[in-house]
Amino acid sequence: MRDAVLVCGKDLRIEIRSRVAVNQVVPFALAVVLLFGLALGPDRRVLAPASAGLFWVAVLLSTVLTVQRSFAVESADEAREGLRLSGLDPAGVFLGKAGAVLAELLVLEVVLSAGIALLYGARLAGFGMLAGSAVLGSIGLAAVGMLYGAVASGLRVRETLLPLLFLPVAAPVLLAATKCWNLALAGTPSHAEGWLSLLAVFAVLYVTIGTVSFGPLLEDR
Amino acid sequence: MSAYVDAGYSVALATLAGYAVSIAVRERTARRRLPATAAGGADRGGGGPAGPSGATAAASPGGVAAPGGPVGAEEGAR
Amino acid sequence: MTTVLEPISQPEPPAPAVSPPGRRAGRGGAVALRSTGLLALAGVVATVWLGLWVTPKAKGFGDLVRLLYIHPPMAWVAFLAYGVATLASLLYLWPRTRHPRFDRLAGASAETGVVFTGLTLVTGSIWGRPSWGVWWTWDPLLTTTALLFVLYLGYLALRRVPGDAATVARRAAIASLIAFLDVPIVYFSVSWWRSLHQPPTVDLTGRHLYVHGSMAWTLLLGFVSFTLAYAWLVGHRCRLSVLREREASEGLAAALEERRLEGAP
Question: A44, C23, C94, C226: which could form a disulfide with A121 (CB 3.0–4.6 Å)?
């Protein structure tokens, strides 16, 4: 899928040059983590067990922003028309843009893990499971995010619509990824294998749907 | 304990009835507004629920006038 | 061009393409809808009567079991409505069956569905309060229903977005498909999640309830009546959509006509 690599590269290059994700989304996520800390109190005995869940909530919220950014990139100068007319395979466009979102999410997650280790006193362990579930979970999130981003793009109330559409559907990822992380942090990552496969199923399902339906979604404007 | 049951039944029935009534009312309102628009656009804007009763008779099943309006408009445009 | 058009010059009704599709259903459809409504009303009244007065109290549940006659039927309709909306969306997207009536059906089913979903949550919560002392437990089915509620609201919000009607309809159809596939995933993950935490001390879903005799019949009647009520509501809601669309298009035509009349010297 050369188109996918092209589009992915383009999006990432735009990001590297404009640094919007780095300057805005990562700080946003850190702010969320901080605010959760303020909300739940300074007692580490409350925060540490909750770290995985709070981490993933922050990731979910950041996904919304990242996806919005991904679509905002093309909203100026009729770039969206250009994308459509360029003859790129829409499936490739989907995979490329989702791939770029995925990359940004992964970077964010690394930063956030440091954040929760620091702020909540979470002891990071079971890195294989942490990384594996993070990757699979993020793939699922990026795919669903891209899909709903396309559904909401170009419509007038998309800023409020996208979170409303995306967050409920992303709920299983939140559940499963939090479970994986909780078990990894508790030192029993092998118990999380079932949840990991749930994340894998979700990812496969939505990447497939995205690949198939991005064409019709891009068509009408 | 039966207070909960009563509450549950009341809420359910009241909501369903309310929804059904609201659909029926809106349908009636929309139906009454319709012929007014086809009758030369006279009562168009201020149609509202108190539409002309004569038009209501012509409105529902027969309604030759209704589709005649827009088709005529299209014909005239050519 | 100074010709003043004469709106009602043709004597016969125009081709079906112009007249609303509801007309083709005509008399038969109206009769069916009316009888459905009457049956539904009769059924619901009977269910309520049987449920509240005729059927006996249950062991361990007491009077609370009476909610059994309305809560599961409404939950069933909530999920049925979503299924219908999704199926209609699928048909709308499929090139061979692309017809505005399916978009209308999807919207009507979603609107009715959200009402039933909300009621399912309320009755479920009312069931839980005396049994458990809390207004909400993370029961898998109820939690999935809560999520379904939010999915409905999102879908309805999407349908209301201002913009080109065809585009919005298409996007909404795709959105409903995406969300539909998520519902079973959510159910599995929540029930798994719950099973790991604490085994339910009192089975909220009443699975251990021994339903027999008049209780079973009332329950069945409940399912049937609420399904009929759903059908009636959706039918009328579709009709309302048709009327509103006609109103919009004829309002536009009348406005154009008026403008043209103004322009003629």
Answer: A44
pLDDT of residue B1: 63
| Domain covering C43-199+213-263: architecture | Up-down Bundle (1.20)
Q: Which domain, by its residues, includes B30?
A: 2-41+49-77
Mean pLDDT of chain C: 81
Place of tokens 């419509």: A155
Phi, psi for C200 (deg, rounded to 5)? -65, 125
Q: Long-range contacts of range A8-15, CB-CB < 8 Å, 24 or more positions apart? A: A8/A95, A8/A96, A8/A97, A8/A99, A8/A100, A8/A103, A9/A96, A10/A96, A11/A70, A11/A73, A11/A96, A11/A97, A11/A100, A12/A100, A12/A103, A14/A73, A15/A100, A15/A104
Distance in Å, alpha carbon of C196 to nearest chain B alpha carbon:
30
A152, C174: Cβ pair inside 8 Å?
no
Question: What is the value of ipTM here, to two decimals?
Answer: 0.85
Q: For residue C55, name the pLDDT band (cuts at 50, 70, 90).
A: confident
Alpha-carbon distance values, C110 to A98, C46, C172, C237 (Å): 30, 27, 11, 10
CA dihedral sign, ordered A56, A129, A171, A62: positive
Higher pLDDT, A48 or C4: A48
* pLDDT tens track for C145-166: 999 999 999 999 999 888 888 8
Residues A63-116 pLDDT 10s: 999 999 888 877 666 666 666 667 778 888 888 889 999 999 999 999 999 888
Q: Return the ∠ at Cα A164 (arms to A163 and A165), rounded to 5°.
A: 90
| Domain residue extents for chain C | 43-199+213-263
Q: How many domains does chain B have?
A: 1
Nearest residue, CB atoms, B12 vs list C70, C243, C253: C70
* CB A164 within 8 Å of CB A147: no
Chain A residues lying within 8 Å of C188, measured CB to CB:
198
The set of chains that have 3 or more CB pairs under 8 A with B is C
Q: Is the dihedral of CA B20, C79, C156, C35 positive or negative?
A: negative
